[in-house]
Write a structure and sequence with these properties.
The chain is an alpha/beta fold and 312 residues long. The chain contains six helices and 17 strands. The longest helix is centred in the C-terminal third of the chain and has 21 residues. It comes from Helicobacter zhangjianzhongii.
């Protein structure tokens, strides 16, 4: 029986491990099938983390986290977690191969990933002008024109955000109507830096060794194509949270989730199941920033410590 099982080894999971073990908790195990670090290790540049003045790649940025977070006794088990169940007061972590681990509490920090459009050039130019984070990458396009793909709240909100530094934002949606909230859409339509291109579908991201050079779009009805000369393409067509491990044998979720399967937590990262906490991109209203994920992990660990104390 371990005290805390941390599922996921990104910034949220590592921070949770650091705060839990430094807080004096023994038998804290981080379950991560590969080397810890999370999807941020795939970022080419990070320059907005407080206290880090050098621009670093995600891989270089996360390297010292591992050493620091394991310094106080955090254990790493390279295993794929398939399911988390709870019987009575204790949780069961189900691994591949039929192995199980019992835990008094669980911090879920499995993150998620932005959906891709699947169009030509997207994968090849990912991180080289194709982005899913305006907060992270918008600064690189100061005074330039960019394209935003999507029709939901996130796409419209990020388009508005990008107008703070970009000279023009093309908002591309395959339909004439948007899923975004009416008030958000109204703000976007009143912003003279945003040009709505509807109904248009993205066809291809063009680029060279220096990165993105343009985006080919096609009118959904006339099939007429045009190319936008933009160095940046931001894609907001949805986000998949990795909460599959919460699904029970009867199809229900172990804890309360919203319609997108993001875990519902309070400000302390508590779920509605005692002893179960969620941190980082899998929780509702996650800002999807490293600094926020790290804070979530710390908060979840502190609450897990308090929960374990309450069991005595």
């Amino acid at each position: 029986m371990i005290n805390i099982a941390i599922i996921g080894g990104g910034p949220a999971g590592l921070s949770a491990g650091l705060y839990a073990t430094r807080g004096g908790i023994k038998d804290v195990v981080l379950f991560e099938k590969g080397m810890p670090g999370g999807q941020i290790t795939g970022s080419s540049e990070i320059e907005n983390y407080p206290g880090i003045k050098e621009i670093k790649s995600g891989l270089d940025f996360m390297e010292p986290w591992q050493e620091q977070c394991f310094r106080f006794g955090l254990k790493h088990e390279m295993a794929i977690v398939n399911q988390i169940t709870k019987n009575g007061a204790h949780f069961t972590i189900h691994h591949d191969g039929g192995k199980t681990t019992e835990a008094k509490s669980v911090i879920l920090a499995t993150g998620g990933s932005p959906k891709r459009t699947g169009i030509a050039g997207e994968s090849e130019l990912w991180g080289k002008g194709v982005s899913t984070c305006a907060t992270c990458d918008g600064f690189f396009y100061k005074g330039k024109e960019v394209a935003v793909i999507g029709g939901g709240d996130t796409a419209v909100e990020e388009a508005i955000y990008l107008t703070k530094m970009c000279s023009k934002v093309y908002l591309i949606h395959r339909r004439d109507t948007f899923r975004a909230a009416p008030i958000t859409l109204e703000h976007a339509k009143s912003n003279d830096k945003i040009e709505f291109l509807t109904p248009f579908s993205p066809i291809e991201v063009k680029g060279d060794q220096s990165g993105v050079t343009g985006l080919v779009i096609e009118h959904s009805q006339t099939k007429q194509r045009q190319e936008l000369s933009v160095p940046g393409v931001f894609i907001f067509v949805g986000y998949d949270v990795n909460t599959q491990v919460l699904r029970q044998d009867d199809g229900s979720m172990l804890c309360a989730c919203d319609e997108y399967n993001s875990v519902i937590v309070d400000l302390s990262m508590k779920t509605n199941v005692p002893g179960l906490f969620a941190a980082g991109d899998i929780r509702i209203n996650a800002p999807k920033q490293v600094v926020c994920a790290a804070g979530d992990g710390a908060a979840a660990a502190l609450q897990a410590i308090a929960y374990l104390d309450s069991l005595h």
